[in-house]
Amino acid sequence: MSYADLIHRFIDAINDTDAVRRRATIEEILTPDCTYTDPEIAVEGHDALDRAFAALQQRIPPGFRFGLTAPVDAHHHQARFFWRFGDPEAGTPAATGSDVAVFADGRIRHLYAFFDAANS
C-alpha cells in the first residue's frame, strides 16, 4: 500500500462510525506502537487511538467529515497532508489543518496534527 493510500485509509478510519470496521482499519494501517498528537490530545497505541476516534464521533454533528484538500506529499518515509473538517455540502469547512505522518514497516507509526484557526 502506498503512503498516499495509507493516509486515505487513515481519513476513512477517522470518519468511520462503525466501531468494528474502524478498529480493523486502525490495526491494518498503523503500527502497534503508533502515536497521534494534536493540540488537544496525545495518544499511543491502537486502543488509545480507537478511543480517541470514538470520542470524536460522539462530539461532532451528524454528517461532519474529514476530507483531504490536496494530494498527499510523501518522501523518505514521511508525508504531509492538508484536510478540512465539517459538512461536506457546506462551502466553508468548520476547521482546516495539516498533518505529518511518519511510516515504519509499511504502516503509519507517528501522526502529528496541526489545526488552523477555526472558521466561523
Amount of helix: 25-40%
Strand content of the residues, in percent?
A: 35-45%
Q: What summary fits the major beta sheet?
A: 7 strands, mixed
Mean pLDDT: 95
Helix/sheet category? alpha+beta
**Poorly predicted runs of 5 or more residues:** none
Q: Round the Cα radius of gyration to an integer and report it.
A: 14 Å
Shape: globular
Quickly name the level 1 CATH class. Answer: Alpha Beta
Q: How many separate domains make up the residues?
A: 1
Protein name: Nuclear transport factor 2 family protein
Organism: Bailinhaonella thermotolerans
Domain SnoaL-like: 8-110
Quick overview:
This protein is an alpha+beta fold and 120 residues long. 32% of the residues lie in helices and 38% in strands. The N and C termini lie far apart (37 Å).
Question: What does this entry look like structurally?
Answer:
It comes from Bailinhaonella thermotolerans. Pfam families: SnoaL_2. Residues 8-110 form the SnoaL-like domain. This is Nuclear transport factor 2 family protein. There is one protein chain. By secondary structure, the protein is of the alpha+beta class. The protein has one domain (3-115): Nuclear Transport Factor 2, Chain: A, CATH 3.10.450.50. It is 32% helix and 38% strand. The protein has helices at 3-15, 19-29, 46-59; strands spanning 30-37, 42-44, 65-68, 73-75, 78-86, 95-104, 107-115. Strands 1, 2, 3, 4, 5, 6 and 7 form a seven-stranded mixed sheet that branches. Helix 1 runs antiparallel to helix 2 (19-29).
